[in-house]
Write a structure and sequence with these properties.
This protein is an alpha+beta fold. The protein has one domain. About 10% of the residues have low confidence. The chain is built from three helices and nine strands, in the order αβββββββαββα. Strand 2 and strand 3 form a beta hairpin.
């Protein structure tokens, strides 16, 4: 092979390696910055490094125990990495439901692909795919919460079942562009609050706002 061709190949490989290292650095920085903001949002929030899963933000949001991490799924290369949220607490729904923004790939619970799918347009042009055994009423707490945050949700999916919620949210390599994660967190808090007698109104009929999620501060991203 001519020396000139070897030089071209070497330069191309060096550029490719530099781009990969740069991208990995951006992902690591964004993950760290966003998880730290999640920690600040949660009550008693911490960031812990767990074997095999990397750093996780943990804490309480209203009555929910929240865990947030960044997950890499080789089966979905165009949608990886992805924020994952686990919320354990009062979620009093009668049967499981999975809601996804239109075009979101994969399933949080693979069994849900066996149930009926419905396409539900919400405000702000957001279209949600609903997967459940039965038709979901328009006042279902999960639908109401997603519609409330339709303008800021961004791509993602939410699985709701008794006393447990899981969410997947699109990741962006620039920390400030991950604000949709916080909208999904707020929606999950509202779903939980709607399951309690104090979630909407106190004895005097006044609306109780409950847990609130801060918006990611772009000046620190």
């Amino acid at each position: 092979m001519p020396p000139m061709l070897w030089s071209v190949i070497a330069i191309a490989l060096a550029i490719a390696a530099w781009l990969i290292v740069r991208m990995l650095g951006r992902v690591a920085f964004a993950r760290s910055a966003v998880l730290d903001e999640v920690r600040r949002t949660l009550r008693g929030g911490t960031v812990e490094r767990t074997p095999g899963r990397g750093p996780q933000a943990r804490g309480r949001l209203g009555q929910l125990e929240i865990t947030v991490d960044l997950h890499h799924d080789p089966r979905r290369p165009h949608q990886s990495p992805t924020w994952r949220v686990l919320a354990v607490g009062p979620v009093r729904v009668e049967r499981p439901i999975e809601l996804r923004t239109e075009g979101w790939q994969g399933w949080i619970d693979p069994w849900m692909k066996l149930v009926e799918t419905r396409r539900l347009p919400l405000r702000e042009g957001l279209v949600i795919e609903s997967h459940s055994e039965r038709a979901v009423p328009s006042d279902h707490p999960a639908l109401l919460a997603l519609e409330h945050h339709a303008a800021t949700l961004g791509p993602g999916a939410l699985h709701v079942r008794p006393d447990l919620m899981r969410a997947e949210v699109g990741f962006v390599a620039h920390a400030r562009d991950n604000r949709p994660l916080f909208a999904w967190l707020q929606a999950m808090a509202e779903i939980s609050e709607s399951a309690t007698t104090r979630g909407h109104r106190d004895a005097g009929g006044r609306v109780v706002r409950g847990a609130r999620v801060r918006v990611l501060d772009s000046s620190r991203a």
